[in-house]
Amino acid sequence: MHTKIIVSVVLGVLLGAVAAVAVFPEARNKFFPQSQTQTSGKALIGGPFTLTDASGKTVTDADYRGRYMLVFFGFTGCPDICPAGLQLISAALDKIGAKADKVTPIFISVDPARDTPQKVGAYAKNFNDRIVGLTGTPEEIAAVAKAYRVFYEKTPNESVPAEYGMNHTSIIYLMGPDGTYVAHFNPTTSVDAMSEKLNKLL
C-alpha cells in the first residue's frame, strides 16, 4: 500500500509537470529554449464553467468574479494527492491571515459518477470551511477540465471494477478577480513557499 501511495504521488506530480510545460509559456521556455523564437503571453487556462455546489445550486465562474480563486481538481476517493493539496491550501490560507478573505478555494471533482454535490462539498469542508466543493454532469466536468487544461482518466481495478481510481493533473491554479491565470502551485509546494507567494500576489 505504501508503494502504491508513493507511485500515485509521483504520477500526479509528473502529470502536473507535463501540464505546466504544455500550458505555461515560461515553463516551455525554461525546459525547451529556442534560439530565435520567443514565446510570451498569458497561460491558456481558465474560462467559463457551470457546476453544482453542495446545496445543489448551479454556480458559474461569474459567481466568483471580484475574488481570487484557488482551483484544484481531484476526487473524494483520492488517497494521497488530493488530501495533500487541500491540506496545503488550508494551511497556506490560514497563514496569510486576513488576506485569505480575498480568496475562494475551489475543489472540483473529476469523478462525477461517484461524487455527488453533497459528498464533494462535505469532503472539501473537512479540510477547511473556506473550501467550496463543486461537481457536475460528466459533460460539465469535461468542459471545465478542458478550460483548465486538466487531464483525468479512470484507472480500472481489475479485481473489483466498481472500485476504479482516477489519475488527474495535480496543479493548483490561482486565478485573478477577473478570472485570468495568476500563478500555480502543486501539492508538494511547501506551506511557507505558497503563503509567501500568495502574500506577494494578493
TrEMBL record:
Cu cation binds at residues 78, 82, 168. Residues 40-202 form the Thioredoxin domain. InterPro entries: SCO1/SenC, Thioredoxin-like_sf, Thioredoxin_domain. The keyword Cytoplasm does not apply. SUPFAM superfamilies: Thioredoxin-like. Keywords: Copper, Disulfide bond, Metal-binding. GO terms for molecular function: metal ion binding. The keyword Metal-binding applies. Disulfide bonds join 78-82. Belongs to the SCO1/2 family. PANTHER family: ELECTRON TRANSPORT PROTIN SCO1/SENC FAMILY MEMBER (PTHR12151), LINALOOL DEHYDRATASE_ISOMERASE DOMAIN-CONTAINING PROTEIN (PTHR12151:SF25). This is Redoxin domain-containing protein. It comes from Hyphomicrobium album.
